Structure formats: C-alpha cells, structure tokens
Amino acid sequence: MKAFAFVCLLMMGLMGVATPTRRHLVQSDRLPVTLYYEALCPYCMEFVTTKLGPSMLRRNRLPFTDLKLVPYGNAARDDYGNVDCQHGVKECELNAWHGCILEHHEIKDSLRLIACMMRGKRNRLVKCAGRFKINVDNVKNCKRSRTVNDILEKYGEETDAVSFQGVPAISLNNVYDESLSANLTDHFDAIFCEMYKEKFNKVLDNC
Q1: H/E stretch holding 71
Q2: Per residue in 134-155, is it b (16+ CB within 10 Å) or e — as a string?
Q3: How far apart are CA 140 and CA 207, in angstroms?
Q4: Which residues does 51 contact at the CB level (< 8 Å), separation at least 6?
Q5: How far is CA 188 from the centre of its chain?
Q6: 3-state SS, residue 47
Q7: Phi, psi (rounded to 5 degrees) for 4
Q8: How far apart are CA 46 and CA 49, in angstroms?
Q9: Residue 25: partners with Cβ closer than 8 Å, 6 or more residues away
Q10: What is the C-alpha separation between 42 and 45, in angstroms, rounded?
Q11: What is the pLDDT tens value at each position of the chain, 207 positions in all?
C-alpha cells in the first residue's frame, strides 16, 4: 500500500493530468524504465531473474515499456582509465558481455539472454543462446575484437549521469528517485502497472 501511495503522489507531481485512453498502441504508450546494474551483484541478479524478467517477458509488459539496461553499476575507472568493477575482473568481463548483447540484439532477446546468464556467476552465453535459439556470433565477435574498457565506456557515462547509492537502481518514467527505486526492487510489476495506468489512463492485462 505504501508503494502505491508513493507512486500516486509522485505521479501528481511529475505528470499532472493523465492522457486519454488510446485505441491503438503507439510508440508514446511506452513507459520508460532504466535499470542500472552489475552482473555479479546478488541483489541485481535476484531483481532481474525474479522481478524484471517475469514482468517484462512472462506478463508481457515489454511491448508497453521503453526498457534500457545499463551494465556498469558501482564500477569506476582507475588512474589509468581502466574500469574497476565492484566484484572484480570477472564482473567487468560479464558486464562487457552484457554490453555486447545489448549492442547487437533487440531488447527482448537481450533481456532473455541477460536474465538467463544472471542465474549463475559464470559466462552462460552459449547455453542461454542455445536455449532460446538466438544467434550470438556478433556478440562473440564484439567481445573478442574490443577491450572491456571500450565496451563499457558508454555505460559508464550513462551511469555517471545518475546519482545513486547502490544497485539495482531503477529509473521509472525518466525519473530516478531513491525511495521509489527501493520500492520497485520489491514490487516492480505492481508499481509499473499503477504508473502506466496513471500516465496513459489504461489498465494493462493481468495488472
């Protein structure tokens, strides 16, 4: 209930009056969601595999979402310009794999692959790609032909533009709010449905 009340107050302040119901889904009927995360963060792994993935894919929220994944999290660059990840070199490597996936695949396939990979702490790309029958040759070439620093550079810039204390950090409707982000980690689908209804005056199926 607190999550819903917070969302309602936030919506009143940010969006004003909701738009009328549209008969057909158009591009503007997508609610922006941005996830700032890192591959080996236990809380990120739990959120992606048990909250975000099921909501977007199983409950089919993805067609109504402008979803963006930013695999960088609490990483930082050292004095030599190298990316230093919170959970070490292995995490930087996995973040880079995620980056290559996002660069070369549409968001649906990207989320399917990344959610599958985040069920473990090893590189499960080949296994996950086989499960979903997704060709990942371009992903492999991306990772093989570029450095981790190069792949992660743009994700670092996007992350630096947002101030958060830890990950997962979730921006909803192009607004990052620490309290809302914390609520989203526990009640993502319910809050997404409520905010979508407030913004577009439309109730999604199974909400």
Answers
A1: strand 65-71
A2: bebeebbebbeebebeebbbeb
A3: 38
A4: 185, 186, 188, 189
A5: 12
A6: helix
A7: -65, -40
A8: 5
A9: 63, 64
A10: 5
A11: 444 444 444 444 444 433 333 344 445 699 999 999 999 999 999 999 999 999 999 999 999 999 999 999 999 999 888 999 999 999 999 999 999 999 999 999 999 999 999 999 999 999 999 999 999 999 999 999 999 999 999 999 999 999 998 999 999 999 999 999 999 999 999 999 999 999 999 999 999
Measure the CA–CA gap between 75 and 43, rounded to whole angstroms.
Answer: 16
Overall size of the chain counted in residues: 207
Residue found by looking up tokens 């199974």 in the block? 206
User: Would you say 97 and 117 are in contact if contact means Cβ atoms under 8 Å apart?
Assistant: yes
Distance CA 183, CA 170 (A): 10
One-letter amino acid identity for 48? V
Structure tokens belonging to residue 145: 């032909």
